[in-house]
Design a protein that fits this description.
It is a single chain. The chain is α+β, with helices and mostly antiparallel strands and about 160 residues long. The protein has 3 helices and 6 strands. Strands 5-2-4-3-1-6 form a 6-stranded antiparallel sheet. A hairpin with a 3-residue loop joins strand 3 and strand 4. The longest helix is centred in the first third of the chain and has 17 residues.
Length: about 160
């Protein structure tokens, strides 16, 4: 089994925004929420069309939190959807607000049923910034076109 998995991701045009404007040319976000979907081979295009529905639902609700969508430029069939927050409390509040929005929940349930046809798995990941281990101070996400993501999995024992 590989312990290191190097993926190059290209930014998808699913979401029109990037991370909140405050993240541009400033410090990285303190909390990053990542929703990772494993897409069936050959179903990426159809999956992308369904994902546009999520964007429309969020726009219709005038949702204040922006997301960034990414798919691999080489290898793999993942789709990652990331949202940045100032704190875990801010992320929790965003999720509570989403739970209280009946129309948005109805739209998401309908889209989830359609999207399930294209997924083989999914995973939620919450990342917290450790500034002592961080490399590089400020960056401008709007100027980035590719990301390199290293995933390290450590098994007990």
């Amino acid at each position: 089994m590989r312990k290191n998995l190097l993926l190059m991701f290209a930014i998808c045009l699913f979401f029109s925004g990037t991370f909140e404007a405050r993240a541009q040319a400033g410090p990285p976000p303190k909390v990053l929420s990542i929703f990772r979907e494993e897409i069936k081979a050959g179903r990426g295009g159809a999956h992308a069309r369904v994902e546009v529905g999520y964007v429309r639902a969020l726009r219709k609700a005038k949702w204040p939190v922006y997301s960034l969508a990414m798919t691999p430029a080489v290898g793999g069939t993942d789709a990652w959807f990331m949202s940045a927050y100032d704190s875990l409390a801010a992320m929790d509040q965003d999720r509570k607000n989403m739970d209280q929005n009946a129309q948005l929940n109805a739209d998401f349930e309908r889209l989830d049923a359609l999207d399930a046809e294209f997924r083989t798995g999914q995973r939620s990941i919450i990342c917290s910034l450790n500034e002592a281990l961080s490399w590089g101070p400020n960056f401008d996400v709007s100027q980035m076109r590719y990301f390199s993501v290293n995933t390290v999995r450590v098994r007990p024992g």
